[in-house]
Design goal:
Elements: H1 18-40, H2 43-54, E1 58-64, E2 69-74, H3 82-92, H4 94-110, E3 119-121, E4 131-134, E5 139-146, E6 149-160, H5 168-189
Parallel strand pairs: 2-6
Antiparallel strand pairs: 1-2, 3-4, 4-5, 5-6
Helix pairs in contact: 3-4
């Protein structure tokens, strides 16, 4: 049916002028982004994010020796979780892989022996109480002792250290995972008597 003279057919949203559509989309983004940014940076979202992370946190046994038991945190991040990290450097850096495995095996059997080149505590208030197993190359594993059990070592993650900086982002990751570990532990023990933490 023909339209009355002088009228204009309304365009379908899918066929609107791209310049107009892009302009409208940008205006929408500009109005929403600050709100989302404020929410993502809020304490409420931080708590929600941590609670969500707890759903995916698992503790897995690496090795139990006569001196210490070593477990690692599985957070579903293949890039840095200990098991996939070790598999990756076994392929790409076999010598460093063998060195790190030897450090952990020795710690399990004989206890931690502090050495600035192999096993050491990180320096600085922002890094405490994180420790690290070091290869002779660039591969590192961050870990900490359970505050109630000095025979339990929890490995947060592994990474390849690029350059001689202080690896601040990796320290932040380790501290975040340490916090998740204690939240996870509290959630397991809530409403029950404390018991030995298992994988």
């Amino acid at each position: 049916m023909p339209l009355p003279k002088g009228s204009r057919q309304q365009e379908h949203p899918g066929t609107a002028d791209p310049k107009v559509r892009n302009r409208d989309q940008q205006a929408h983004n500009n109005s929403v982004s600050p709100l989302l940014s404020t929410y993502y940076n809020s304490k409420r979202f931080s708590v929600f994010r941590n609670l969500l992370s707890l759903l995916f946190v698992k503790l897995a046994d690496y090795i139990s020796g006569s001196a210490t038991r070593i477990v690692y945190m599985d957070c579903g991040q293949n890039k840095c979780d200990l098991a996939p990290f070790l598999r990756e450097i076994e392929r790409s850096r076999p010598q460093e892989h063998n060195q790190l495995v030897a450090r952990m095996d020795r710690a399990a059997k004989y206890g931690v022996v502090w050495n600035n080149y192999k096993t050491k505590r990180l320096q600085g208030k922002h890094a405490q109480p994180i420790c690290e197993f070091c290869s002779a190359g660039e591969s590192r594993i961050f870990w900490f002792f359970d505050e109630n059990d000095n025979k339990l070592i929890i490995c947060t993650h592994g990474f390849v250290a690029r350059g001689k900086h202080d690896h601040r982002s990796e320290i932040v990751r380790a501290q975040q995972r340490r916090s998740l570990y204690y939240e996870h532990k509290r959630s397991l023990h809530a409403g029950s008597h404390p018991k030995k933490l298992g994988p």
